[in-house]
Amino acid sequence: MIDTLVATFTILSLAVLGFATNRIPLVIVAMFVPVALWATGVLPLGDALAGFSDPIVLFIATLFVLSEALATTGITAWIGTQLERCSSFGRTGLLATMVGGSALLAAIISINGAVAALLPVAVVAAARAGIVPSMMLIPLAFAAGAGSMLTLTGTPVNVIVSEVAAEAGGREFGYFEFALVGLPLVVVTMLLVLTFGDRLLPERTPEHLGDVAADPRDRVRSWQESYAADLDAARLFTDSTGVVEVLIAPRSTLIGRRVSPGMTTRDENLVVVALRRANDSPSGSSARSAALPLQAGDSVLVRGPWDALHRYTRSPDVIAVEASQSLQRSVPLGAGWKRCLGVLIAAIALLATGGVPPVIVGLLAAGALVLLRVISVPQGLRAVSWDTVILIAALIPMSAAFVSSGAADTMAELLIRVTGSASPHLALLAVCALTLVLGQFISNVATVLVMAPVAVSFAQTLDVSVQPFMMALAVVGAAAFLTPIATPVNLMVLQPGGYRFGDYWRLGLPLALLFLVAAVWYVPVIWPF
Q1: Pairing of β 299-305 and β 258-259
Q2: What is the pLDDT of residue 421?
Q3: Per 3-state DSSP, what percentage of the chain is helix, strand, and coil (rounded to 5)?
Q4: Is residue 411 exposed (0-12), middle (13-18) or buried (19+ Cβ within 10 Å)?
Q5: What was the pLDDT predicted at 236?
Q6: Tell me, what's the pLDDT at 289?
Q7: 3-state secondary structure of 180
Q8: H-helix or E-strand containing 156?
Q9: CA angle 449–455–457, rounded 5-degree value
Q10: How far apart are CA 385 and CA 60, in angstroms?
């Protein structure tokens, strides 16, 4: 018992160190956990690898597929376009709309998907409203964290705590049950940003924005200048056709072929829109009307159906300047959006009723999207964040090890000695405070997986319901606001906002404390001990 207990804490400590230092890829650190649990005899081989067959992992993978379908069909781009119109409402109106939109979108397509979809929109809208991006992007990321508490599928953490609650003798949470605490958190986040944002957010000027703010209209304006050609974004980009810019590869078989605008490509029958020499400056370039023998490094604009463009840009003969898939995603309401929306509504309805297991709903939705030709099988597989899936699958056995080795009971006993056994609120405070601190340096998913068995042991020792402990873990798990490495979305806005490491805690600390208060004192009111 003692040997396995020491081994479990040692493995956990090494994993936390690996996550926090960020010098080793997170996937490698995560894979170390099940291997070490088996090698030290804490768990048998089957239990050490059980996370890879857990329904939670498969369900989370299907959510990435659904998110990809929403992006590919332009539904997320359409939402972004509607929000961008608020740039004329001034700073307060724009910020309120972006924060609210980020929260709602996170509830539908996940935190990462929401921020990825709205980041370019926020940068463009901020520029048009005369606002520096740094005043907009941290609120965008934090609002997505709050919005993830609106639905079961808002974040993997919600799915995990729901399953743990059921396994510990409680019950699964309903699809919209999270909104009982999530909605107040979204409102508090919005009020804090609007009221104190000017004082708590830094004014930073990013060194460069790269392609963050690019959409088809911006891209076409750039092409008009560099190719000196008359181009119409509305005609070039539709739900069925688009344009990509490619460079002729150094050893391309196209070198020497005479090409002029209006001709078609050799393989995919795409139309050449414009071309220019590699050594032409934008100011010196001109629209080419005569045939031009292609050379390595020449730039060419080609137009055609999206599927053909996707195949063409994968050819070794050309190098795509920008992925055709990303350009297609920026076209609002593209091909298949009605079918995708129908699948989304059906999936939400099934999840809300609770009559079908979430993993079955996810599999049905992913299968329907493929059968309805909204996305292809390879596209769906590429959409899955395998780093996240492997991270969760590899760390699930750590939760089992905490229970079987007695580590969870040991931590619970130590915390009870400190807090006393009289008040479950103090026990909840201790669990949530530790979770909040750990969640700033390692993945909130990893943190909750480790702390969940401790919280269950607490609830069982105090002979109270496990529901408030699990919901509180979800709340503080969403409060990863103090560092840029706490969540992927915090890192996502770092460079576009020109932020520094210490910029996050200024707004993040008061917001995290509010989440902690909600977890410890508000959650037990809704889900009593």
Answers
A1: unpaired
A2: 61
A3: 65, 5, 30
A4: buried
A5: 83
A6: 54
A7: helix
A8: helix 156-167
A9: 115
A10: 10
> Running DSSP on this structure, what letter comes out for residue 264?
B
In angstroms, rounded to a whole number, what is the distance separating the alpha carbons of residues 30 and 443?
A: 11
Q: Is 211 helix (H, G, I), strand (E, B) or coil?
A: coil
SS3 465: coil
* Residue 40 to residue 358: CA distance in whole angstroms: 34
Q: At what angle do helices 467-477 and 156-167 cross, to 10 degrees?
A: 160
Is residue 390 within 8 Å of 30, Cβ to Cβ?
A: yes
Half-sphere exposure of 86 (CA within 13 A, CB side): 18
CA-CA distances (angstroms) from residue 238 to 85, 194, 213, 431?
A: 20, 37, 20, 52
Q: Is-contact 139 92, C-beta < 8 A? A: no
Q: How far apart are CA 32 and CA 113, in angstroms?
A: 28
Residue with token string 């396994």: 167
C-alpha span between 440 and 455 (Å, rounded): 19
Residue 33: name the closest of 47, 54, 22 by CA.
47
Q: What is the largest CA-CA distance in the chain?
A: 87
Per-residue pLDDT tens for 388-407?
Answer: 788 778 878 887 787 788 77
Beta-bridge partner residues of 300 = 246, 275
Q: How confident is the model at residue 468, as a pLDDT?
A: 96
Return the amino acid letter for 342. Answer: G
Q: Which residue has the tokens 């909605």?
A: 183
Cα–Cα distance, 473 to 160 (Å, whole number): 10
Rounded Cα distance, 509 and 507, in Å: 6
Cβ 101 vs Cβ 83: under 8 Å: yes
Distances (CA, A) of 416 to 331, 420, 425: 55, 5, 11
Query: In a 3-state reduction of DSSP, which class is residue 396?
Result: helix
| Selection from 120, 59, 152, 104 nearest residue 384 by Cα | 59
**DSSP code, position 216:** H
Q: pLDDT for 407-444, tens place per residue?
A: 777 777 777 777 666 678 888 998 999 889 888 877 78
Give the number of other Cβ atoms within 10 Å of residue 3's Cβ: 11
**Backbone torsion region of residue 185, taken as left when φ is above 0, otherwise alpha when ψ lies between -120 and 50, otherwise beta:** alpha
| Burial per residue of 233-263, b for 16 or more beta-carbon CB atoms within 10 angstroms, e otherwise | beebbebebbbbbbbbbeebebbebebebee
Tokens of 488: 């992927």
Q: Which residue has the tokens 């008061």?
A: 510
Tokens 């929403």 belong to 70
Quickly tell me which residue has 């750590």 as its tokens: 398
Cβ count within 10 A of residue 373: 10
272 pairs with which residues across the strands? 302
DSSP 88: G
Residue 86 has pLDDT above 70, yes or no: no
pTM of the predicted model as reported, rounded to 2 decimal places: 0.70
